[in-house]
Amino acid sequence: MYTHPLLWLIDEIIDLYKIVLIIYIVATWLINFNVINTSNQFVYSAMAFLYRLCEPSLRLVKKYIPNFGNIDISPIIVFILLTFFQKILFYYFGPGSL
Q1: In a domain, 58, yes or no
Q2: pTM for the predicted model, two decimal places
Q3: Which of 4, 32, 61, 96 could make an S-S bridge to 74, C-beta 3.0–4.6 Å?
Q4: Structural domains counted in the chain
Q5: 98 in a structural domain
Q6: pLDDT by residue (tens digit) across 2-28?
Q7: What pLDDT does 1 receive?
């Protein structure tokens, strides 16, 4: 399916980032609903790691979207943009395009 190893690598990195983003969102919900506790050292370390990975892209999107109160749609927009970028990569550089 892949014609170039670099295209495969970029696609896998984007897929991995999308998974990390989903884990971060679910973990944030669990913390907000007091299902998991951040006073646990492992949970705190994992959330700090996920925050450092996900928050820069979320912050970039939050800069350009209006505030909807308690509803944060920035993860949805980041997820859609990542999928759009994958589609563009395969459209211009995928099999049969060159």
Answers
A1: yes
A2: 0.87
A3: 61
A4: 1
A5: no
A6: 568 888 899 999 999 999 999 999 999
A7: 55
